[in-house]
Fold this sequence. Notes:
- By secondary structure, the protein is of the alpha/beta class.
- It folds into 2 domains: 53-175; 181-314, Glutaredoxin, CATH 3.40.30.10.
- The chain is built from 14 helices and 7 strands.
- It has helices spanning 6-13, 22-39, 58-67, 77-80, 84-98, 103-116, 119-134, 143-153, 161-174, 216-227, 229-236, 251-255, 274-277, 305-311, and strands at 187-189, 195-197, 205-211, 240-246, 266-269, 288-292, 298-301.
- The strands form 2 sheets. A 5-stranded mixed β-sheet has the order 5-4-3-6-7, covered by helices on one side.
- Helix 2 (22-39) crosses helix 3 (58-67) and helix 2 (22-39) runs antiparallel to helix 5 (84-98).
- Pfam families: DUF5106.
- InterPro entries: DUF5106, Thioredoxin-like_sf, Thioredoxin_domain.
- It comes from Porphyromonas gingivicanis.
- This is Thioredoxin domain-containing protein.
- Residues 177-315 form the Thioredoxin domain.
Amino acid sequence: MYTGLISLLLIVGCKNSDAKSEHQQAVAAISMVQDSTATEEEEIAFPPPAIPLTIQNAHERALYYVQHFWDNCDFDQHKLLQSPKKLEQSLVNLLGVALYFPVDKVQKSLIYPLERSQDSLFLFFKNQYERYLYEPQSPFFNEEYYLPIVEWLAETPKIDLTTQEKTKYFARLMKRNRVGYLAEDFQFLTSDSVSYTLSNFRGKATILMFYSPGCHSCQEVIAKMKENIELRQLIQSKKSNLLFINAEDNWDVWRGSIEELPSFGIAGFNSDGKVTEVPLYDLKYSPTLYLLDQEGKVVLKDTTFEHIMERIKEL
Length: 315
């Protein structure tokens, strides 16, 4: 369960809505946080920054809030960890506003508590960042903001050399298939042993789903796809592609399960194993869903079917 201000999470959940620009949402987020922390300071670990009255522009006030967020935190490990929920709420308040600004404007503030903390407090911040920014089910999931944190962790002497090497490997993996960049190409076979590559499908928007036969969550998404008339029309009118890729099971298991998939999609088996063995993709869960644009660039990753259907209309 993720903590946080319900109203703030509602704003974050609507981040891609056409009803408000990201600028307007950032202003709403900072107002919500300021109002809440001003009246319920017992719910957070330390007072929020005092924004100078001379800063009148709402966007600048929001950025000041993020960049000076830790001004009133003394990083007293024993005091802060007496109320971990309050400290977590404080971090949620920061993320709820920071994610509306470019990474380069807020990454210093995100990394700062890791620089200032030690031992258990350091681990607290490290684990919370992973939980909120890296886990797809988090309302704040965003690898672009998590990547500079991971790169910093890979170099800090606060973790041992073995963990540093693992973190460096993790950072390299995170740099693959980033939003706005080309998706890694790979080869796959269809059930009649015809070979394709992902790049063969450029020219149309592509829904790419990595899945495993028998996976309950996969079956739920597949059922939604079968029932979705809009998706069927997009694929059958040849405006978009729908690819189901199995990268983890053996050929016979996969081939015996493809009848479960929507008939209007293309089922493929990553026969050379590079998707998971290199690995070319960070498959956190099954299923893992991507949306690619006509050039093969990543639009959405580790996303939901519902989110894909919202965004594919724009491509």
